[in-house]
Structure formats: C-alpha cells, structure tokens
Amino acid sequence: MKLIFLGSGSAFTVNNENYHSNMLLVDDTDAKLLIDCGSDARLSLAELGFTYKDIHDVYISHLHADHAGGLEWLGFTSYFDPSCHRPNLYIHHSLQTPLWEKVLSGGMTSLQGSIADLSTYFKVHLINDNEVFKWNKLSLQTVQTVHVMNGFKILPSFGLIFTANGTKVFITTDTQFAPAQICDFYEWADIIFQDCETTKTTSGVHANYVELLTLTPKIRSKMWLYHYNPGPLPNAKKDGFHGFVAKGQVFDFG
Ligand SMILES: [Zn+2]
Ligand SMILES: [Zn+2]
User: Fold this and answer.
1) Segments making up each domain of the chain, as ranges
2) Is the pTM for the entire model greater than 0.85?
3) Distance (Å) from CA 148 to ligand 2 centroid
4) Interior CA angle at 227 toward 223 and 229, to 5°?
5) How many whole angstroms separate alpha carbon 207 and alpha carbon 210?
6) Average pLDDT of 138-166?
7) Has domain 2-252 been given CATH number 3.55.40.20?
C-alpha cells in the first residue's frame, strides 16, 4: 500500500512548483483511490504519468476548489469517453447535496439533449457518520475536523484514518489547529499527515506551523506536514517533525 502526494501545497500554489494537496492511495493490486480532486488534479496527475482513465475511485474531503474543483474535469472526461465507466465517488453524506447544487451543477447540469445530475457522472457511495467504509480490501473511517467557523456554523472537512499493512495512518485533510478535537487520533496514529499553513499571519482555518510547534514532541515526531504555502519553509526536522512532504513524495506502507 502506497500513498503518493500529487501535490503538497496550499490552495494558492503557483506555477507548477507544487500542486494542490491531492493524493493517490495505491493498493497491492495497483488499484488507485484519488483522495481529493482539486482544480489542479488534471495537471498533477499528468506530471506523474496518469490520466482520468486511471481514476476509477475518488474520495472528497470537503468542497473547497483545491479538493473538489477537479470533479467537473473528471466527470466530463470520463462521461464522454465510451471506454470509461462512471468513477466511484466516496463522500460523507452531508456533502452530497451541496457538492451538486453549489459546486458542480452550474457547469454539469446541461448535456446536449438531456439534464444530468451527480449520478450521471459518478457512482455515489455515501458515508454515514461513524461508519467504516470499504475501498477494495481496505477499511477507512472519516474523522470530522473543524475547518472553518463562519460565525455561527462549522464548515467541516472529513479526514481519514486507516491501517495499511499494520501502519496506522491519519490524514487530517484541511483543519484548523484543534488538537482537543482530534487528540485521540493523534495518539492512535503511527503516522500523521497534517495540514500545515506556513504564512506569518494565521488564517485561522488551517493549523499554522507556530501552533503545531506547541504539540508534544511525541505527536510532532509522527507528523509529516503538507498543504503548506509557497515560499521558504522552516526547518521542520530540527523542530521535531518528520518534515514537509514534497510534491510527488511516495510513502510505502509495505
Ligand atoms: Zn485545501
Ligand atoms: Zn479547505
């Protein structure tokens, strides 16, 4: 089981020095689960030699464009290629309606001679709260994280936990610094892929590097940092982290 980072940058990556933080989970049969499909995905996949034809399964953590903005490309290219089946779309049940009505329907409702909906393009697999869902032989579970508090309501993201060949993996996806809410998963995991903002001013909606420095050495020592901003990076190894994930970096869980 391998995890490939197509990109490890923030939503505002520039040129092609990095791409959006989308990943490919590749199992022992070479099946691939695309974890988030941002508006960069067609480029980041191409850079590693993949096309839409390689993507049969996709998981979406939340609806920001760096995580869901590539679904129009994936849906249309698969739909118009007679050799393709509809990709399987794994998504928390609360995201299904807003994904279609607020993100995709503007561009994807109208086909020549027909009206489409989400199921026209994707075979949708809804994930319920606290449900363990299966992708091939792997069991995964969503972990709701606090991403944006818009005044009165939380816009969550749905991170993932799974055990790959004995290694317990936690991918936070986008999250603000909220260790009290996810400390159990920090403790549980052997390896943590952590959203990390590296700007001097904090946005509040991503865990900033200076905030992550306040975690215990034990937790920091499990962390690979990703979703970072363009520009110079601090010395994460010196500060007790594994480091920053590079574009294209592969983690092999054996
Ligand atoms: Zn993001
Ligand atoms: Zn986000």
Assistant:
1) 2-252
2) yes
3) 8
4) 120
5) 8
6) 96
7) no
Q: What is the model's pLDDT at position 14?
A: 85
Widest CA span in the chain:
60
89-100 mean pLDDT = 98
Report the SS3 class of residue 92: strand
In the numeric block, which tokens belong to residue 204? 């509040």
CA of 12 to the centre of ligand 1 (A): 9
Q: What angle do CA 53, 57, 59 make, to 5 degrees?
A: 130
Extended strands (E) in the chain: 2-5, 23-26, 32-35, 57-60, 88-92, 110-111, 114-115, 123-127, 132-135, 138-149, 154-164, 167-171, 191-195, 223-226, 243-244, 250-252
pLDDT (tens digit per residue) in 42-84:
999 999 999 999 999 999 999 999 999 999 999 999 999 999 9
Q: Looking at the CA of 21, which ligand is closest? A: 1
Please name which of 9, 34, 29 lies closest in space to residue 19, comparing C-alpha atoms. 9
Query: How many angstroms does the Cα of residue 241 sit away from the middle of ligand 2?
Result: 23
Q: Which residue has the tokens 């698969």?
A: 78
